């Protein structure tokens, strides 16, 4: 049976509705997901002054702690050092996420990320350059430890991203890039042999300790709580509502594919511990 054969038997309003729904624009709209679950997170990153203020807050606290460590530092002590993550800590990924929203993409897209990195897309986060240059002015070395993989040019791109944004210590003695692992502890331990690491900067708990790398929401929370005294002291944490290992705790994968199943999981995670109307 075709619509044409039934023209005379359907009500005129139903025929009009069918005509509208068969237009290409409607068909395209109907085939796209109802909403991108990251829209609110990206809108917040892109527009909220509060998001920027949290970076200033983090770097202001870092400076207070650094000044305290400098006052306590005595001749002969191991030199002070800072270990910092790169993405979403000292370099912002906002323009990449804006691209993702404009392209109708959800979750994470490795191909787009790699092109954005190679195109020198990242810009410094608010307060990062000022704080790290302050540390440098006090003779405190900054070591960058990051996990990235853009193939053979991974290291070159990471260095270029830091240098383009005038971040100090952008050289091969101070930048470590792990291509095959997100475990940063081997390099962290190496740095700690010769330095007193007074601050660690990151947007992901895994930037501080590998023990947080677990795929369970409640376990992550309880491991973090064990170290609650460290936040704002040694660990300076920056906000990231779009990516990181908190996603691994929900999906079992830090970069889950944008499937209907994962969209449902994301929605279920957002609705956990929800208030329910009492009749
Ligand atoms: Mg990061």
Automatic annotation (TrEMBL):
Family matches, as InterPro entries: Acid_phosphat_B-like (IPR005519), HAD-like_sf (IPR036412), HAD_sf (IPR023214), Lipo_e_P4 (IPR006423)
Leader sequence segment: 1-27
Alphabetized Pfam families for the sequence: Acid_phosphat_B
Phosphoprotein recorded as keyword: no
Gene3D superfamilies: HAD superfamily/HAD-like
Keywords: Lipoprotein, Signal
UniProt-listed NCBIfam families: lipo_e_P4
Name of the protein this chain belongs to: 5'-nucleotidase, lipoprotein e(P4) family
Organism, scientific name: Pseudomonas idahonensis
């Amino acid at each position: 049976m075709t619509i044409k054969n039934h023209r005379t038997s359907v009500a005129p309003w139903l025929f009009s509705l069918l005509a509208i729904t068969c237009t290409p624009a409607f068909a395209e709209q109907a085939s796209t997901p109802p909403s991108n679950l990251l829209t609110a997170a990206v809108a917040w990153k892109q527009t909220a002054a509060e998001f920027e203020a949290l970076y200033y807050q983090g770097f202001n606290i870092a400076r207070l702690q650094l000044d305290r460590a400098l006052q306590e530092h005595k001749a002969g002590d191991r030199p002070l050092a800072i270990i910092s993550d790169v993405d979403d800590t000292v370099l912002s990924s906002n323009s990449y996420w804006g691209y993702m929203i404009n392209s109708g993409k959800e979750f994470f897209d490795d191909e787009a990320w790699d092109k954005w990195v190679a195109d020198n897309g990242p810009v410094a986060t608010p307060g990062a350059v000022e704080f790290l240059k302050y540390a440098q002015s006090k003779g405190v070395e900054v070591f960058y430890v990051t996990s990235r993989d853009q193939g053979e040019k991974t290291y070159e791109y990471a260095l270029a991203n830091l240098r383009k944004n005038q971040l100090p210590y952008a050289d091969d003695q101070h930048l470590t890039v792990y291509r095959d692992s997100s475990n940063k502890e081997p390099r962290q331990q190496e740095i700690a042999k010769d330095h007193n690491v007074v601050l660690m900067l990151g947007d992901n708990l895994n930037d501080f300790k590998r023990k947080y790398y677990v795929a369970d929401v409640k376990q992550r929370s309880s491991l973090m709580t064990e170290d609650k005294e460290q936040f704002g002291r040694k660990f300076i944490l920056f906000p990231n509502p779009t990516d990181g290992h908190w996603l691994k705790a929900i999906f079992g994968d830090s970069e889950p594919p944008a499937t209907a199943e994962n969209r449902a999981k994301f929605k279920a995670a957002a609705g956990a511990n929800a208030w329910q109307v009492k009749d």
